[in-house]
Amino acid sequence: MSSLEATQNQTGIPNGKLGMWLFLASEVMLFGGLLSSYVILRTGSPNFGMPARELLGVPWATLNTFVLITSSVSMVLALSAMQDGRIPAFRNFMLLTITLGFVFLGIKSYEYWHKISEGITITSSLFGSFYFTLTGLHALHVIGGIVFNIYVLVQGLKGKIINPDHPDRLEYAGLYWHFVDVVWVFLFPLIYLI
Amino acid sequence: MKNEHSKAMIKTYLAVFGALAVLTALTVMVSTLHLPRVPAVALAVLIALVKASLITAFFMHMKSEGRLIAGIFLASLFFLLVLIIPVIIDIGF
What we know:
The complex is a heterodimer. Chain A is mainly α. Chain A has six helices and no strands. In chain A, α1 runs parallel beside α6 and α4 runs antiparallel to α5. Chain B is an all-alpha fold. Chain B folds into two domains: 60 residues; 31 residues. Chain B is built from three helices and no strands. The chains are: A mainly alpha, B mainly alpha. Chains A and B meet through α1, α3 and α6 of A and α1, α2 and α3 of B.
């Protein structure tokens, strides 16, 4: 496991963890650029029309928020289980996390279908453009997170790369998944509630 | 010893989860009150900031990380504020 004996370096932080945090910092700017242009156009433009609240599907989005925070807690419980060597618990929590990721995408797809059938599309208005760009970019991140989570589930069960003594990559997958949750925590009120 | 430690951690995780659920319900409830725009936006952003801080501090273990990782994240937050604040001042929010 030479790649995992990475704490002996100048920073004192495993390279993988440092890399993941740097990547997340760049992701803050990716979402931040889009989100801030949304906030600024919405506050600054008198022509920024918002669809009626009923069309936004607030109940589904609220449910999706609960789905993501539940998947976040099951992800961190999976890491805790792995660190304790409770492999069956690790497997169950990871399966729950991955399933909830798919549930989120399912609800999101239903929302997209609903909005498009109500005439809100990516070209219909400023709101439509921002809605589909922001939530679409976030949904791509959810898909990426699910792929990463499936990888750590498989590797955790194999026990070579990820095991109770070396849970590093599981931790990095968790960092990414929690970040995707944090992004949604901001998207949800700014798109649906205000 | 290790088990005792992780039991305490699991309790913390579940408490954070409870707080996140309550805050989500709260932010939805506040939005149905139809407050004037500025307090409505301020409250929504404040609640989102609290939720994001809880996730970062406990689920992402920022609480127990060193200065370097905190610094990386704070630097990106600083540049995010640079993106938002001057323009908001300019458009006279």
